[in-house]
Amino acid sequence: MAVPERNHNRFYHLHHHHQHQVFSVLIVLFLIHVDNALCIRFPDRVAPPALHQSDQQRLQVAVFALGSFWRSEAVFGCLPGVVHTTVGYAGGSKSNPEYRSLGDHAECVKVEYDPQQNSFRDLLDVFWSNHDPRQVYGQGPDVGKQYRSIIFVNGTEESRMASVSKEQEQTRSRSSIVTTQILQLGTFYPAEPDHQKFELKQNTILLQLIGNLPAEELERSSLATKLNGYVAELCPPNIQKRIDAKINDIIKRGWPILREL
Ligand SMILES: *[C@@H]1O[C@H](CO)[C@@H](O)[C@H](O)[C@H]1NC(C)=O
C-alpha cells in the first residue's frame, strides 16, 4: 500500500500530541503489518446508513465563516448532533465563486445539525472559541478577506442570538474590536470536491477504515464528518478520546470496517 508523503507528515504531527501516541504506534504497527502480509482485505465500499426522511427533515442548517474552511469543517464535524458538513463560499456578491476566484465571498462551513441534540446557541459558543474574531481579515497565517469572521443567520431569532453572543464576546475582548459580521444567509455555494473533508482526505488509513467511499458519499457521510474533525484533533476532548478508543479497538480486533462512532 502506497502511503503518500503527506501522511508521514501527519503521523509526525500526531506524535507531538500525547493523547495520540497510542494511536500513532498502532498505525505504524499496522503499516508494517500490511507491508509484510497484505492479509487484510478492505472492501471497496460500504453503503452509508440511510438517514430516515423524518430525521433529514428535522435537521437545521447553520453557516459560519471563521478562517480556512478546511479547519472550520473539522471544528464543527464531531460535535454531538452534527450530521453533515459542507465547505463553500458565502457572504459576497460574485456568482459561482471558485477557490481561485472567490471574489468578495468568505470561506464557510455549512453545518446540518439535529436541534434536539445541539442548539444554535451551542454552535455559537463553538464558533467563538475556535478562532480569533479580533483579527482583521485573517486567521493566523491565513491573511485575506476570504478568511473574515461571519455568523450567517436565518430569521430574527437567530439574528438576536448572534447579536447577544457577539456583545458577550466584545465584553470578553475588552478594548479589542470584535470584527465578526452578522449577515442574513443568502446563497451558499458549495466548494469544489477537493476541499470537502480535506483533513480526512490526508489520511489514507482512516479512509480505508470506513471503506474507501466514493467522493460524493464521503461528502455526505456522517461518519466521515466526525472523522474529519478527529483527524485534525479538533473534537472536544471527550469525543476525541472516545473515537481514539473505538479505532484502537477495531485495530485490535483485526480491522473490520468502521461503520459508526
Ligand atoms: C430558514 O428558516 C426557515 C424557517 O425555519 C426554513 O424553512 C428555511 O429552510 C431556512 N433556510 C435555510 C437556508 O436554512
Automatic annotation (TrEMBL):
GO terms for molecular function: peptide-methionine (S)-S-oxide reductase activity. The keyword Nuclease does not apply. Residues 62-203 form the Peptide methionine sulphoxide reductase MsrA domain. GO terms for cellular component: cytoplasm. Its EC number is 1.8.4.11. It holds the Pfam family PMSR. It is an enzyme of class 1 (oxidoreductase). One of its GO terms (biological process) is cellular response to oxidative stress. Coiled coil: none annotated. The keyword Mitochondrion does not apply. Keywords: Oxidoreductase. It catalyses: L-methionyl-[protein] + [thioredoxin]-disulfide + H2O = L-methionyl-(S)-S-oxide-[protein] + [thioredoxin]-dithiol; [thioredoxin]-disulfide + L-methionine + H2O = L-methionine (S)-S-oxide + [thioredoxin]-dithiol. Catalyzes the reduction of methionine sulfoxide (MetSO) to methionine in proteins. Plays a protective role against oxidative stress by restoring activity to proteins that have been inactivated by methionine oxidation. MSRA family specifically reduces the MetSO S-enantiomer. PANTHER family: MITOCHONDRIAL PEPTIDE METHIONINE SULFOXIDE REDUCTASE (PTHR42799), PEPTIDE METHIONINE SULFOXIDE REDUCTASE A5 (PTHR42799:SF3). Belongs to the MsrA Met sulfoxide reductase family. This is Peptide methionine sulfoxide reductase A5. It comes from Phaseolus vulgaris (Kidney bean).
